[in-house]
Amino acid sequence: MTFRTFKLSTLNIACAAAALAGGLFTASSQAQEATLRFNRWVPPTHHFHARIMVGWAERVEKATQGRVKVEFTPASLGAPARQFELAQTGIADVTAGNQTYTAERFVASRVAEMPFLGDNSEAISVAHWRTQLRHLAKADEYKGTKLITVFNNGPYQIFTTKKPINSVADLRNMKMRAPAGMPTDIGNALGVVSVSGPITEAYEMLSRGIVDGTFLPSDSIRSFQMEKVLGFQTQVPLGLLNSAFFVVMNEAKWNALSKANQEAIMSVSGEAFAREAGRIWDDQDRLADEQFAKSGMKIAKGSDSFTKELHEKLAGIEAQWIKDVSPRGVDGKAAIEMLRKESVSYRSK
Predict the structure, then answer these.
(1) From 3.40.50.300, 3.30.200.20, 3.10.580.10, 3.40.190.170, which CATH number describes the 34-153+243-283 domain?
(2) Quick check: 298 pLDDT over 60?
(3) How, if at all, do strands 232-235 and 157-160 pair?
């Protein structure tokens, strides 16, 4: 009798152990799952969200085999300039923003806004990511977050309402919408009267004559319907300047993910994400330029003499940036040389 009782107890223990192991396995599997809250601050139909960010979210879910899902907020948790702060403090798990909005933080990253980086957003974006890894990371500008990627939109061109721009002299004393940061620095170097204002007010500023033109990529003109009040575009070879963007994740949220999930996420992030974002922005610029041609906008490529003038006038911006990043441990000259070299070599593939 005792012997039988002992056998039954052993069986019960074995079953209990199996059940416990199964429970632990289930709990372990569940622990690998996560939902990332991504702050959306642009309209849901804008390609920045609909094509670039949603596309990445879908690739993350596929790469992690459904273990990690990205959910976007129905409304923004903070202003555009607060996007990095939202991720750093954990108010949101993932955010995307423009380095220009908080230029005091992203000093090293200004290299990706410099004049004459290239005509192709995909190439510049990939070059930006590679330069970030090699040189810019030393400045530790994304501290408190996990950097998912950096990328650029298309090169800025010169758009005006009433007259074409064929020389630097044509720009002198013109009122141009130029937000603070690199656009204002360039405007000042070219002798324009820089007028700041959010892009959401640019159409009104142009239509009411508050400004005579603006520095923007083609897609931004189309997205905010400014082609209706702009008569001329002067295309600057290699671009007058660029805007740079980041995507970051809260550091604690990143560290809570399993190594397998981290590796899966980064397999569709970093350079892969930068490349895809750049491709989409190039496509958006192409669609915009096609629309401009149909609308009757006068489009001209900057002449060799005008381009030479621009290089001479804007050389001081690059030199100043190299000085600014030196105390932050970044070799500015090497960084900008790498970015331009990587952009050109990528474009030639």
Answers:
(1) 3.40.190.170
(2) yes
(3) antiparallel
Predicted model pTM: 0.88
Does 6 have pLDDT greater than 90? no
Structure tokens at 256: 């809570």
CB 296 within 8 A of CB 88: no
Report the CATH architecture of 157-241+298-347.
3-Layer(aba) Sandwich (3.40)
- pLDDT band, residue 26 (cuts 50/70/90): very low
Secondary structure class of 24 (helix, strand, coil): helix
How do residues 117-176 score in pLDDT, each as one tens digit?
999 999 999 999 999 999 999 999 999 999 999 999 999 999 999 999 999 999 999 999
pLDDT of 284 higher than 70: yes
* Phi, psi (deg, nearest 5) at residue 44: -60, -20
Close Cβ partners of 250 (under 8 Å, ≥ 6 residues apart): 87, 88, 89, 90, 92, 93, 94, 144, 145, 146
Q: Which residues contact 349 (CB under 8 A, 6 or more apart)?
A: none
Same fold, 34-153+243-283 and 157-241+298-347: yes
Q: What percent of the chain has pLDDT over 70?
A: 90
Pairing of strands 145-152, 298-301: unpaired
**Widest pairwise Cα distance in the chain:** 108
Closest to 247 in 3D by CA, of 154, 152, 147: 147
- Other C-beta atoms within 10 Å of 324: how many? 14
Mean pLDDT of 274-295: 95
